[in-house]
Design goal:
Blueprint (H helix, E strand, L loop, with lengths): L6 H25 L3 H4 L4 E7 L4 E3 L7 H15 L10 E4 L12 E10 L2 E11 L28 E5 L2 E2 L1 H9 L4 H29 L1 H24 L4 E10 L6 E11 L2 E5 L15 H16 L7 H4 L2 E4 L17 H19 L12 E8 L6 E8 L27 H7 L2 E9 L13 E8 L6
Parallel strand pairs: 10-11
Antiparallel strand pairs: 1-2, 1-5, 3-4, 3-6, 4-5, 6-7, 8-9, 9-10, 12-13, 14-15
GO biological process, one term: glutathione metabolic process
GO cellular component, one term: cytosol
Protein name: Hydantoinase B/oxoprolinase family protein
Length: 460
């Protein structure tokens, strides 16, 4: 049964909650220690209802969506509501235990209490430059097991009734090559949730729990109806597409296969026929898969619809366990963002067959750079993790965008000034790669050329 609501109030509430997520993001990026978060903004925030349905999500890094959705659900499955107390806060990062989509992305989740009951959750996620593992940066395609990729954290309390759980924090810091940076970033995440908690409580104080819960549910219902109407305008049918990831060995490939079925205001994505999971870190865990599907679908069918659980209801996703898009533990998944770029192209190609006026050429993945070693300026060990965006594929009506990560990725390139200030590098060239996007009536977006001069002698 759908909920009837005052549309004006619903819009006010929705915009307020979206503003809360933006305020949380500002608190996180302005207090974080690492350039990866404060400059590249590789972080996201969200507000969830009492049952773990996302009700507000800002425009940040789309792949983080699946991680936060998964960890709130995992907390509700692992802990009874009665055992969760005001002031508790949870930390998690393990893709196979509801905590994320790869280990460097650490979730921080706080229940919101009003009238003695859990009425909502606020959450944020941030990419940490190192969480241990066999290589600096905790991400390498050569990893064959998640145990090689770093510290695994199931949903556990990092705050107990408002008091920091120093034991958990110490465990996380001991496993990182850059503990001081990790400590500052984790405390920034805690602060961001504190900001969000305070703001959400103020909204419940204004409207009351019963009325606000009804309004939030009604807004999710409205979002579902709006998106179902957008789907209903598409020609019903079955549309297939595929692409390839690098396989286990040079020259080998792994297929991502998709069959999209459109009908009755619903989309069904079936990845049956995809190749078995890889013995490398290019596998795509479930939370990264759903985030990529949700993001590409929204961007192509209704970019202005609110990013909440309402439109998720119109989408069904089926995948086979043990495949590249459904890996099972202990498959490595650290490089999933590169694979999700290819996955996004597969999804966009299938949708483009039903919406030729919005066709999008393939973009391919970005590039990951990890540089680590002893800084000759101060003798401290550092890990520089950054991604370099390429170009967006051409659209059927416009050139592709230059130097941008597409589909489920959304973090920025690291500015030269911040890079040279923080790390012992000199950037001798940073420019567009002219004519690299492919010619045509509408060209693909240009990639990036960036030359590093590394100072010092001790490097990983």
């Amino acid at each position: 049964m759908k909920t009837s609501i005052d549309p004006v109030r619903a819009e006010v509430v929705a915009r307020f909650l979206l503003g809360v997520t933006e305020e949380m993001g500002a608190a996180l990026t302005r207090t974080a220690f690492s350039p990866n978060i404060k400059e590249r903004m590789d972080c996201s925030t969200a507000v969830f209802d009492q049952d773990g349905n996302v009700v507000a999500l800002p425009q940040r890094v789309p792949i983080h969506l699946g991680s936060m959705v998964g960890v709130v659900g995992a907390i509700l499955a692992k802990f009874t509501r009665a055992s969760i107390r005001p002031g508790d806060m949870f930390i998690a990062n393990d893709p196979y235990h509801g905590g994320g989509s790869h280990l460097p992305d650490i979730n921080m989740i706080a229940p919101v209490f009003f009238g003695g009951e859990i009425v909502a959750f606020v959450a944020n996620i941030a990419h940490h430059a190192d969480v241990g593992g066999m290589v600096p940066g905790s991400e390498a395609a050569i990893c064959s097991s998640i145990f090689q990729e770093g510290l695994r954290i199931p949903p556990v309390r990092i705050m107990k009734e408002g008091v920091l759980n120093q034991d958990v924090l110490d465990m996380v810091l001991l496993n990182s090559r850059t503990p001081d940076e990790r400590s500052g970033d984790l405390r920034a995440q805690i602060a961001a949730n504190t900001v969000g908690h305070r703001a959400v409580v103020s909204l419940f104080e204004r409207y009351g729990a019963q009325e606000l819960q009804r309004t939030m549910q009604g807004y999710l219902d409205f979002t579902e109806r709006r998106f179902a109407a957008a789907i209903a305008r598409l020609p019903a049918g079955r549309y297939e597409s595929h692409d390839w990831l690098d396989g286990n060995e040079p020259g080998q490939r792994a297929r991502i296969q998709l069959a999209l079925t459109i009908g009755d205001g619903r989309l069904r994505f079936d990845f049956a026929g995809s190749d078995p999971q890889l013995q490398t870190a290019r596998n795509i865990p479930y939370r990264a898969l759903i985030a990529t599907v949700y993001t590409v679908v929204k961007s192509m069918l209704d970019p202005e619809v609110a990013a909440n659980a309402g439109y998720f209801r119109t989408i069904e996703i089926a995948t086979t366990p043990g495949t590249v898009v459904g890996p099972v533990s202990p498959a490595a998944i650290g490089a999933r963002a590169l694979s999700c770029a290819v996955l996004g192209d597969v999804i966009a190609t299938a949708i483009s067959q039903a919406t030729p006026g919005k066709a999008l050429a393939r973009s391919g993945p970005h590039q990951l750079i990890v540089l680590a070693g002893d800084d000759p300026r101060n003798g401290q060990y550092f890990v520089n993790y950054e991604t370099i965006a390429g170009g967006m594929g051409a659209r059927s009506y416009r050139h592709g965008m230059d130097a941008v990560r597409v589909h489920a990725s959304g973090s920025s390139n690291l500015p030269v000034e911040a890079l040279e200030h923080t790390y012992p590098f000199l950037i001798e060239r940073y420019e567009m790669a002219r004519d690299s996007g492919g010619a045509g009536q509408y060209r693909g977006g240009a990639g990036v050329l960036r030359d590093y001069r590394v100072m010092g002698t001790t490097w990983w």
